Amino acid sequence: MSQKLEQLARDEAFMARALALAERGTGWTSPNPLVGAVIVKDGRIIGEGWHTACGQPHAEREALAACDEDPAGSTLYVTLEPCCHWGKTPPCTDAILEAGIARVVVGALDPNPLVAGQGCAQLREAGTVVETGVLEEGCRHLNEVFFHFITTGRPLVVLKYAMTLDGKAATRTGASRWITGPEARERVHRDRHRFAAIMVGIGTALADDPALTCRLEGGPWRQPLRIVVDSQGRLPLDALLVRTAQEIPTLVAVGPQASAERTGALREAGCSVWASPPAEGGNGAVNLPALLDHAGSLGIDSILVEGGPALHGAFIDGGLANRVQAYIAPKLFGGASAPGPVAGRGVALPADALRLSSPTVTALGPDLLLECAVSPSVESEATPCSPAL
Q1: Which residues are annotated as a binding site for substrate?
Q2: Higher-scoring residue by pLDDT: 267, 85
């Protein structure tokens, strides 16, 4: 093996370690990215760290603080380009230069306009050797949410549903608990920790009275913002989402026709209420694109939509979904009237189907989790629309 290939192999091994460290911040860093850092001197790791939470020191500073010897002349491996601006914490480039780091290996460049290559440029100008693109695909995938949020200003939207092998999301009587087994449900709770917000429509809120919380053992676990799309403000004051709103934030998105009496009562009970501008079509529905813009303004970088067919259909019809999670159980419900997981307008011909890409399949006990990305080209051609949820 050539010297260059040997160096690349070493770089990839240390970057893989940095990626593993970065994942430890899952659920806590939002809306900041997940970042891990490893400092290597004479082939040995002398310090490592990761970004533990928004507002806390960045991974590079954590790794420098953890060094058990002088880091001068060492190599820093970091999954995302070091920041070069003041935010809630000082610039990491300053700390790197002050420590005398000789070489910096970066996984992916930061799309944040405040950085966007400037961090690497600043280090190079000061004489530091900088190399980029090591395990770049993995580093970008790790921060899919951050990359989407920082470039669009909107949260990454993932539609999640469970269905039987014959495509039913409930029986003909509307019963849906439980379609999947405990392993799949545990994965859902892990995602509730990972996502900044969970969203349902008023139909799901009325039918299931859900908590929409992460209820895994151990922890600590972060609880997501709960969002209810409720055009008329019908969410009962004795609903679990309302009764727990003082402890776990709950946002009720209402339409233009919701009464002041209902919205006032929800606010008095501890919910935040967001009044939607009129939706396209003027049917009193919640304007979903505007709701996503509002969520983005709150720093919500990801939403797991656990809605029913109507809400899922609205996101699909509006071209507002970025990913789909389908939990598939090896069961058959049958029944012509048993609902599927997605309603909306639907398509007339198979050739008009929404194309999904990059499928992955995970076995969870007897069930399968199929995850796909929504094709950007199809998404961009869709017309925003909202149902009367």
Answers
A1: 176, 192, 212, 215, 306
A2: 267
Q: Would you state the pLDDT for residue 2?
A: 83
In this structure, are 57 and 74 located in the same domain?
Answer: yes
The 10s digit of each residue's pLDDT in 246-286 is 999 999 999 999 999 999 999 999 999 999 999 887 788 99
Q: Which of 145, 174, 195 is the last residue of a domain?
A: 145
Domain of 73 in residue numbering reads as 1-145
Catalytic residues: 60
Tell whether 135 and 158 lie within a shared domain. Answer: no
Mean pLDDT, to the nearest integer, of 83-89?
Answer: 81
Which amino acid type is present at position 250?
Answer: T
- pLDDT tops 60 at residue 178: yes
Query: Looking at the chain, which runs of residues are DSSP E strands?
Result: 36-41, 44-50, 75-80, 103-108, 129-132, 156-164, 197-201, 225-229, 250-254, 272-275, 302-305, 323-329, 356-364, 367-374
Which residue, of 104, 126, 145, is where some domain finishes? Answer: 145
Extract the annotated binding site for Zn(2+).
58, 83, 92
> Is 343 within a domain?
yes
Report the CATH number at residue 122: 3.40.140.10
